[in-house]
Structure formats: C-alpha cells, structure tokens
UniProtKB/TrEMBL annotation:
Residues 7-30 have a biased composition (Basic and acidic residues). GO terms for molecular function: chitin binding; oligosaccharide binding. This is Chitinase domain-containing protein 1. Residues 106-435 form the GH18 domain.
Amino acid sequence: MARRRERRGEPSQDRRKDRVGPATREEKLNDSDASERKLIGIFILFFIIIPAVSVLVYVYKYGSGTKRLEPVITERGPIKTDINFQEILTENTNVAGNESQRNYDYPVLAYITPWNSKGYEMAKRFNSKFTHLSPVWYDLKSHGNSLILEGRHNADKGWISELRMRGNALILPRIVLEAFPTELLKKKKQMDKAIDLMVTECKEMEYDGIVLESWSRWAAYGVLHNPDLRNMALKFIKQLGHALHSVASTRNPKQQLQLVYVVGPPHSDALQQHDFGPADLQSLSGSVDGFSLMTYDFSGPNNPGPNAPLNWIRFTLRLLLGSTGNNAQRLAPKIFLGINFYGNDFILSEGSGGAGAILGRDYLSLLENHRPQLQWEKNSGEHFFVYFDDNNVRHAVFYPSLMSIYMRLEEARFWGTGISIWEIGQGLDYFFDLL
Ligand SMILES: *[C@@H]1O[C@H](CO)[C@@H](O)[C@H](O)[C@H]1NC(C)=O
C-alpha cells in the first residue's frame, strides 16, 4: 500500500494502459458505444451487472444518503454540492481566509513528499494550520546482516528552520520499515539496533519524533498471520515508543520525542488477522502518540469509484473505536483520520489512454480541456465527472472538492479525532482555507 502511495506522487509513471475496469455506479445509466458483438456479453457483465450489484452491495453495506445537501455557509462563502468546472478553475487559487487562522482545534498532520515540491511551500505558507508535519524522507533497510537508516540526504535543514521560525508544528519525518521483518522481530539485537538508529537520527537532526510505517509491510510478508510474530511486532512498536518517550526533544526539553504509527483500514467488515483492529489500537495506545489512519484508496483501477466514501470512513471509525463509550472518547483524539488531496482518473471503457492517480494540476487541466459536468455522489460524499479522451475512451475522475473535504473535516470533529492529509502538495490552494 505504501508503495502504491509513493508512486502516486508521479502519476505519469503510474499510467495503466491496458486496463478495462467495470463502470462506476452511475455508468449503468449511460449508453455505451461498444460495437463488436463478441464484446456484448463482457460488456453486459462489466457495465451493467457488476455495477448494478455493486450499487446494491454498497447501499446495503454503507447505507444510502438520500438527504439533499444544502450549501454550507462558511467564512469563505457557501460550499455547495452543485458546482461547475468554471467555478473551480476561477476560484481554486483564491484563499479567502486568514492563512494563519485555524477552523478546527484538533490535531492536523500533513505529509510532504520530496518528489512533489509544492508540499514544502504549502507547509511554510499554511504553517499555523498544522500541528504535525511529516516529510516522507526515510527507509530503514536490511544491509547484509545489519540495518541502515537511509534518507538523510532528503532532509532539508533550511526548510526545517524556516518552519520553526514561523510556527510550532512538530516535525516527525516518516520512516518506512523496509528491513526484512522476521530477522528484525526475532533477533533482539536487530530490534534494539533498529530502535537505536531511529532515536539517534531524531537526536542528531533535532526532530520531534517520527511517523513509522510498517504494518502494511509486515502484512505483505505474512508476519501478521503468525500469532507469535504478530506479538513480537506489537512489542517492537511499544519498545520503540518507550525509547522515543525516554528522550527529551532538543528544542523543547519539556517535550518527549513522539511516535505516530501508520495504520490501514480493515480489508473487510469481518476483521482479518492481519488487519489492524480495535484490540491493537487499545494495546498500543499507551506507547504510541497518534495513529495515522489511511482512510483512502477504497477504489482502484479494477473497481473504479470514490476514493474515500464517507460511509466507509464511518464504518472504519466505528469498527476501531466502537460506536460510543469511554473507550472511543479516550482513543479518538489519537487518531489522525486520513484525507486524500489527490484524485483518480479511471478508464471505464476499453482502449488505451492514461489513467491513475492525479494531482491538483492534472485535475485543473482536465477541467480546462474537457469542460465536464460535475456530479455529486451522495453515498460517498464525493464529486466526480465523466469524460472521453482523444481516443474516445471513457474516463471517470474522482478528485476532492471543497464540499467533500468539508464533510470529512466535520466527520473528524464529530468523532473527536484529528486528521492527516496525504499529501499537501497534491491539493488545490483553496482546500487549505477549510483547515
Ligand atoms: C490572522 O490570524 C492570526 C491567528 O489567529 C492572528 O494573529 C492575525 O492577527 C490574523 N491576521 C489578520 C490580518 O486578521
């Protein structure tokens, strides 16, 4: 999952040329232009039956929102579901509010990637809107029988000191644990070495802690399917948390170094052994300062659709936190609910053409070139549009809008969580007005 996310920074390299995906739920309403007879059977399956079934499953599982959304009046003006491409093109650079003023008091973690430099600018410009900044800089790797922490060459000290002059956001670089996990988890020496490398880097570079991503790797290696290794994995995270907490920040001696841990949403509503579940949340909550919850990538090239359906976000939070009670109140503030600032351009009909993750600038050029009609998808709480490319191949584009982001920010407030944004260089400027 992390690998996919990383590629997302360079969508042009992520083009999927030969994919024929089933249609989105809306597609079943449209006529298709398939002409070859032998394709008709496939066509019916892909474009009618599968979408029809997925609507049913989707509505059944996540409920349907039939309530019409009224415009929300905010300081930057009304936020609506009924928008057109022209409004987005003219308004996206218009940041109406005070760039230092926050609209929410919960924690806001922003990811920044070195391959998309706009994120560095946004972090400076909207500095006071963030409480945690996580530049995606490090990998902890196996190196023969030992371990190395790679990525210091990415660290930009000038940028860090500018940020620190302007605001108080904690700087917690992300580290991906690439190291071969069974070695790491079974050998105490390796475990200690890994922890030491990370703590030492924080001290030497004067970071406020780290964001660690390892769960998806461990799941991929099968580590989490083995109960003993799974326990070792949890133990490793706890030990790392305690090691970081035992060190005072160089900048602010009253503050300990922090650990934010990245977790993915469960793969289905029946929790699997390799899923990060409520018991894990509970078990780690004493050693981890925050959980960056990746509530996005719900859809993919093989099942085009919304990136982060709101009902699915609710389902995930309910699963992790329980529906009510003290537990939720205690644990919710540690969760950084994931919000995507990227979108997807999916191919819906057979043919060639680019498809994959898109950034704000890609979205704007699609709007300019195709002047599409934007539609609001009630169930997911996302905007999308359909267009035909130069080869007459049909695409569906899902990209965040003011309304979709606003609804997710409010959702976080409702649950008492914070938010995390992947990643701030991929959005449109006026999104930051809402934070
Ligand atoms: C913007 O917000 C900050 C923080 O609340 C405040 O200190 C500053 O005076 C505001 N600036 C303007 C121009 O209102």
